[in-house]
Amino acid sequence: MFQATDLYTANYTSTASVVVNQGGTSSGKTYAIDQVLFTKLGEGKRKISTIVGQDIPNLKAGALRDALEIYDSSQELRRLIKSYNKSDRIFTYHNGSIMEFKSYDGPQDAKSGKRDYLFINEANGIPYSVWKELFLRTRIQSFIDYNPNAEFWVHEHLIGKPGVELLISDHRHNTFLGQAQRDKIESLKNEDEELWKVYARGLTGKIEGLIFRNWSVVDAIPGDATHIGTGMDFGFTNDPTGVLDLYMQDGELWVDEMLYETGLTNPDIVKKLDQQKFDRKKQIIADSAEPKSIEEIKRLGLKIEPSQKGPDSIDFGISILKRFHINVTRRSVNLRKELNNYKWKVDKATGKSLNEPIDAFNHLIDPLRYVALNKLATAAPKKKVKVRKI
Hints:
Layout: H1 6-13, E1 18-23, H2 29-43, E2 48-52, H3 56-61, H4 63-73, H5 75-80, E3 81-85, E4 90-93, E5 98-102, H6 107-110, E6 115-120, H7 128-136, E7 138-146, H8 153-157, E8 164-169, H9 179-186, H10 188-191, H11 193-201, E9 215-218, E10 226-233, E11 241-249, E12 252-261, H12 266-275, E13 284-286, H13 291-299, E14 304-306, H14 313-321, E15 326-329, H15 333-339, E16 344-346, E17 353-357, H16 365-375
Parallel strand pairs: 1-7, 1-8, 2-5, 2-6, 6-7, 9-15, 10-13, 12-15, 13-14
Antiparallel strand pairs: 3-4, 4-5, 10-11, 11-12, 16-17
Helix pairs in contact: 1-2, 2-4, 14-16
């Protein structure tokens, strides 16, 4: 039906009640599980598969995006599927089977509905109580995947128990991955041994020394928040171009991810922003190391300037951002991932943290820092005054 890796075969042939896929980045685990579920739904009449994410933005950036790519690239699969409802995120087969993509607010919400197959995507973002309710209402088989940043409920309650199979994968299992991307993943070893262990080998780690802990997730930017600036970091083949909007309200920062994509030329970047109805009057602050790109984007009609630079600009930008509480919109999936992995380098000899960040997981944090350097260097957060009513 489609080209697949050995990880697809391992998941498809598993007879375990729960198949746990612990893997590094780009191992193809989510893609493989999606393929398995597409196959199983095609083989059985009126079967239901529920694919669950932490929230809808995470699903759209992960399991659902992969599913749509699989669907678009397979003529045989398209013949089996009657329709795809974009609003409800449901594939419906001619044989009556359905594949649905959902998120749940809590265990009570998860009690609604039953299914034959369950897939918990990026399980370390989903509470154990939600998993329990969903698993109890799953008739045939459940799949789980995650990057093993640290131990969580899967390690405590599932791995090693009867009826549970553990599959550990990494980028070497993905035969369709390019060498440049493999080299980039392996280069994490030069930055941080623990991150390399997690993302290049799929082994359970313990991410310590995170730089930003002063942030939380919000649904949207407040309507009366003041726009501070738009940050832009340039990428192309292996690194994504990252763009975000930074606002302020009540002494706190509010951030919304706008763009995170590889292979974009400068005209592509402008076109993508225009498609989002980006206000061309907004001030963009971009990587000062790319003066040619800055000039081209300026000639394309956007208001753009280089970020401040200097030998201590990275540390200074970080110190500015740490003065504020940062509110990150739920749809900013890639920024949230970066904040969960951006950490200080560690001296390999002593194991002590160095006052220097790793050069990874920073394609949106860098543009956030650019705006801070240019617009917030002299700003101080205004603390809310709490008044107790008598």
